Amino acid sequence: MPELPEVETVTRDLRPMLVGRTLGLPTLSTHALRTEWNPAWARAIRGASVVSISRRGKWIIVELSTAARLLIHLGMTGQLTVVPQGEPVPDHLHFQVKLKPDPTELRFRDIRRFGSIQWFATGAELDDFLKDRLGPEPFDIDRVYFRTALRRTGRSLKAALLDQTIVAGVGNIYADEACHRAGLHPGAVSASLSGDDADRLCTAIETVLSAAVAGRGSTIRDYVGGSGLRGTFQTAFAVYGRTGEPCLKCSTPIVVARYAGRSSHWCPVCQPIVPRPE
DNA sequence: CTGTAATCCTGCGAGC
DNA sequence: TGCTCGCAGGATTACA
What we know:
The protein has about 280 residues and is α+β, with helices and mostly antiparallel strands.
């Protein structure tokens, strides 16, 4: 479900409601999430307070006073919220823990259960886990690095953008949007891009993600921010979900096809097929 | 080694 | 109205 802007929004929303609070004993549903939950983690969490909450790629990191870390991924349908204690328990609630001194609780709800909650004893252990899975954050990407990374793979541009080890945080929606802004076809062979193409794409990624963060992300399905508010950026999509609708730049109908196993949307005129004529 | 396909789940809209 | 099918903001694994 959520990509970087949505995860960032959740993190920002939760920060004032989480930092400084002390956690009780978490309770888990009987349904497994993507990763296994060790019962010992619940006891380790109890009594700890929250030092910080941050985001890395699409992962949410909760730093505890014990030096441990909670690592949360929202998957496709995950919802991390803080609600008043006593709120009705919704379907698909998989994790909840009471907070003090406020009469609130932190909840993780996930319909499809592609999400996960993990515990790491130290920041170093967490870093070790993320190290091989995530490339740099998409803001201020080193242009030389980005050119090189794209040139190194024979996959489609779409596949490269979805690869979290190249750039962290981009998902299906913002990959399409960035390609459109850069005038690049999502099915283009990544390695065929010119240096200038890569630079433009890099800028497009930053621009699109910044605008989406400013709009509190995109709500097109289950996503809600940590305070339950919906995002607004879905109204600014140039191509995603706009199949058959006119391109905002040239009025040509937007088309859709599958690349890297994901539906990809583009304008056949603004984003000519591989390789771009130089 | 590299790249694609299947897989984990539930819900919803399209089409018959 | 009711059923089946395909698809959905992701990440990992299994296989070609």
